[in-house]
Automatic annotation (TrEMBL):
This is Prephenate/arogenate dehydrogenase domain-containing protein. The lineage of its organism: Eukaryota, Viridiplantae, Streptophyta, Embryophyta, Tracheophyta. It holds the Pfam family PDH_N. GO terms for molecular function: arogenate dehydrogenase (NADP+) activity; NAD+ binding; prephenate dehydrogenase (NAD+) activity; prephenate dehydrogenase (NADP+) activity. PANTHER family: AROGENATE DEHYDROGENASE 1, CHLOROPLASTIC-LIKE, AROGENATE DEHYDROGENASE-RELATED. Keywords: Coiled coil, Oxidoreductase. Residues 239-266 form a coiled coil. GO terms for biological process: tyrosine biosynthetic process. Residues 15-267 form the Prephenate/arogenate dehydrogenase domain.
Length: 267
């Protein structure tokens, strides 16, 4: 269900935010966080030191030095596939205060379960999924949904301030359980990506007589296949509801095919 701003209570003014995994999506989020006045640090397997210097973000190749920054919030923006490996490399013993851990992955039960198993008991956890990215959010975030679950939150002020980043940009904040998110996302996001991948395998291309509907399919193919196959694999491997939707699609195609053949035989 959608949450109103009054749910979040009083807020801090700015945060020290540490980002683990500084790829394109993290960079996209970071620009808005910086604009709002938050202080950012980042660490990543790839060297983004030059880019971070230009953006005003502290960059650390070494995970230990990154955690010595004592961020208020640690934002996990890794790929779905690599999350487990990255989490195993985090030196949780260096934490000297309560930290809010937040993930922004496109699946939710997987990071929730993984993090609850390894986070120190006094650390908080909010699982989020911004339902937009650098392309759909390039002209602003107003009206775009942020799905989240406050999995374990004791510091309401800290959580409030973090969620307020999205609220200030006009996002629609939608609070739901990780399970509910994954069930809905399997039907929407995974099905969308699967259709896009199927269209790519069919090698569909523009024609001189394209209808508006076909142009939408071409756009779908381009949009979904721009994302890495690892993302698509993660949507399948780490969302337990995805296999059911894949089977539903296979049955639906077979049903449509059978109806066509049956009607042809009647002619």
């Amino acid at each position: 269900m959608a949450s109103s701003p009054k749910d979040y209570g009083l807020r801090l003014e700015t945060l020290k935010i540490g980002i683990v995994g500084f790829g394109p999506f993290a960079q996209f989020l970071a620009k808005t966080m910086i604009k709002q006045g938050h202080s950012l640090a980042a660490t990543s397997r790839s060297d983004y030191s030059h880019l971070c210097s230009q953006m005003g973000v502290k960059f650390f190749r070494d995970m230990t030095r990154f955690f010595e920054e004592e961020s208020d919030v640690v934002l996990l923006s890794t790929s779905i596939i690599s999350l487990s490996q990255v989490v195993q490399s985090i030196p949780f013993g260096l934490l000297r205060k309560r930290v809010l851990f937040v993930d922004v992955l496109s699946v939710k039960e997987h990071p929730r379960d993984l993090l609850l198993n390894v986070l120190p008991d006094d650390c908080d956890l909010v699982c989020t999924h911004p339902m937009f990215g650098p392309e759909s959010g390039k002209n602003g975030w107003k009206g775009l949904p942020l799905v989240f679950e406050r999995v374990r939150v004791r510091d309401l002020n800290l959580c409030s301030t973090f969620l307020g980043i999205f609220e200030r940009e006009g996002c629609s904040l939608v609070e739901m359980t990780c399970q509910e998110h994954d069930k809905l996302a399997a039907r929407s996001q995974f099905v969308t990506h699967t259709i896009g991948r199927m269209l790519s395998e069919m090698e569909i291309e523009p024609t001189p007589i394209d209808t508006k509907g076909f142009q939408m399919l071409l756009q779908l193919k381009e949009t979904t296949c721009t994302d890495s196959f690892d993302l698509y694999l993660g949507l399948f491997k780490h969302n337990r509801f995805a296999i059911e939707e894949l089977n539903n699609m296979e049955r639906a195609l077979q049903t449509v095919k059978n109806k066509l053949l049956e009607e042809m035989e009647k002619q």
